Amino acid sequence: MSIIDDVLAFIRNPEAEKLEPLAVRVFRYQFEKVPAYRAFVEAQGLQVEDVTRIEQIPAVSTQAFKYARLENDDASANSGAKIFLTSGTTIGRDERGRHVVPWPAIYQVGAIRHMRRMLFPDGQRLATLALHPTADRLPESSLSQMISWSIDEFGNEITCCAATREGIDLDTAINFLSSRAARGELVCIFATTAACARLFGEMASRDRPIALPHGSRLMDTGGAKGQGEPLSSSEVVELANRWLGLDPAKVINEYGMTELCSQLYDATIFNSDHREPPSARVKLAPPWLIPFALDPATLRPVAPGQVGMLTFFDLANVGSVSMLMTEDLGIVRDNIARVIGRAQAADARGCALAIAEFAQISNG
Amino acid sequence: MDEAATPSALRSCAAEMRAALAHPLEIEETVAALAAGCEQIASIGNPIGAETVQSIAHRWGWSEEVLELSLRALCEPVKRPHLEALAQRISSRKELIAFVMAGNIPGAGLHEVILALLTGHGVIIKTASNEPVFFRQLAEAVRQTAPALAARIAVFTWERHDQAQTSALREICDRMVVFGDDQTIAHPSLAGAAGGNGQTTGFGSRYSGAILTSGAIAGSLRGRILHPLVLDIIAFEQRGCLSPHHIFVGDPEGSVAEEFAASLAAQIEAYSDDVIPPPSQLALEDTASIRRMRERARWRRIGGEAVHLWEGPIPGWTVIYDRDASFTPSPGFRTVFVSPFRDAPDLERRLVPVKGQIEGMAFKAEPTIESESYIYSLRHLLEQTGATYISEPGRMQSPSLDWPHGGGEFWRSLCEKA
User: Do both B251 and B265 map to the same domain?
Assistant: First the structure.
């Protein structure tokens, strides 16, 4: 079997003892097939044969996808390869990362399997509302692709996409939700957190809550991206309950990124034994996605429970680079991650600390 | 004066200070005490200076060497002749000024405190909770020389959540001087003092850099520039508004600037390894910011861009040559960018991201090699950026006492004739 087949087999039937040997094989494969990664590893002075454990695999910053072609030599032979672009929110230059996924089937199988566990553990098929363009409208978006696969897999015949490349049609979205509520039909909403903020803002201005049937649910993703004053995860839960009547346990935040084929989701009583309040939720990874928190100075894992830079080894990324260091800070314990937030960019050095202290006083 | 920071203590302090302000103080005594106080605090051979450096080093994990370098540079202009010259230009006032100090570097705001005392004001200093040492030590040094002047200085520290103290400070003072970032400088919590003219002066976020012509770094001149420039970078671990973030080298081709970056990296490494050690550890966010800068540079180079990264351990140092970059803010802690510029218009374009936010610029050209008109065009450009301080390399952390910090509003308000 090829390494691609082995990865797919693992995702379909994870066996813990097979993970590390397979991960090391994937690393060696990527070293051989991805020239930019090979250049990076060689510049570290690392001998490939010395890497025998997952945590020894050199991590590539997610920024790398903006500047280098982290593409597999084998990808060009595969006409089914997909190219996803990041949303390009980097401050300053207009930089969009580019992730070539040579074997989208691996991405699809992994995404669907973990989504089934985290968002559809009850086996329901629901009406679906997308507040982000689906893949036919925004093919370069990995989120769009994932939403389309999810609608196909978990939706019933009633579906609505209320977003285009140009924006969100809030009237359409609210009318769809009202209709489903009136008919007692369960709904699953797929949205960015920014889209949720717009939807809740519009509903607040109309002051007309919609009571979706119990069992309806919301997946939001993207965090602060695209929001002037971002909603916190607990605010999303609270507002979804207030305006849509959603059970807090069924408001589930997804953590993912274009550069990573696998995702993590909020653990709630709906999909696990976790009962943390919305402000302290943890995220669960699938068995083929291993989270680490790295010390940004040494790039070695910090002690369990300590804050570090969130880093992931993702078998589903076999077609590009699997060990990715994000720009987010977080805590990892027993393969469970808690996202703390993004490390702040360098700012002007004046005399900033004291004023910030006082501003916080005023903000209570 | 140094006591527990309660609202009633602040009010008592203000009453005592206003009484002290009623007693005349000879300007010669003030000049002598301020010069002596700064000399003590800047010298580790003096018990107060040694204690200051050791205490801050212990709290922050910075090396004593970097603190000695930094405080010496900061206090260097506070000399008797300079104070005497400044005293000729000002007239005495008797207001009570509150200073809300920052915690990014020790001693930030010294120029303004000196000016306030020299002009006859009383000062109540609220230190940042993470750096309560410097001004307390300065007050003690002044007390040993001139108790009457020390009666016009009070230093308090309280935590961010102690809002009652902040309100009390606003009530008791005639004006407030606040050091902070631009977004929050107009925040309601920092509204003007209740007394006097109700004015608040803010010193917001600012950047600094350096402009070097190719002539200034040609041949043996390069070595002479590197030493002072590296000290500018290392002082205060690049946390102050006068610390250079980005160095631009006049060089149409780019190769001179890249070679200079390599030399700069070697020099910073040498200093960091042997002479002026970096901090023993950094806050996680600072480390993460440095890591992010490094990874961005590393991958841009792998991607074929004209970028070169030199790096030491973290905490340590980082030099990034970036041929096409505009002014790039540094995360500090010896992280510096180097880029070439073709001519004055190109340099102007590269400074656009920090337009209106430049505090200081080191500038060095070589008039024996370069034309007067070229040098003039660059100097004129720097003056047009709004930089309040243009200096030779090696002098960036030592602006004179009449430095119009933040645009000069505070300086003018104290120095205009009463």
Answer: yes
